[in-house]
Amino acid sequence: MAVFTTVRTQEQSGYRETNARMEELVKDIPGYLGMDHAQTPGGLGITVGYFRDADALTQWRSNAEHREAQRRGRAAWYRNYTLHVAKVERSHGFVRTEDPVA
């Protein structure tokens, strides 16, 4: 799993298109399992990418288009970012099937 937290700059020219391309491109990585993303009104963004194993994450990190997007991010789009790579030990969830009755 890769947890990418960001604060973006005012300069966002080309960001949306590049982000869409990265979301499209990562799906071709064998072992990519999906992602979650959240953005606060204050500008903090958090993206969690799920990968089957370290090899899949390494393949994504090494992708030439992704490397260029990283370079552009550091040059223009991000005020700061942090990347955490972790191994999920356990996971569970909950899905409500209908709204509770008051």
TrEMBL record:
UniProt cross-references to InterPro entries, sorted A to Z: ABM_dom, Dimeric_a/b-barrel, Jasmonate_Hydroxylase-like
Keyword Oxidoreductase: yes
Residues in ABM domain copies: 6-72
Lipid biosynthesis listed as a keyword: no
Pfam families noted in UniProt: ABM
GO molecular function: monooxygenase activity
Highest taxon of source: Bacteria
Keywords tagged on the record: Monooxygenase, Oxidoreductase
Name under which the protein is recorded: Heme-degrading monooxygenase HmoA
The species this protein was found in: Lentzea xinjiangensis
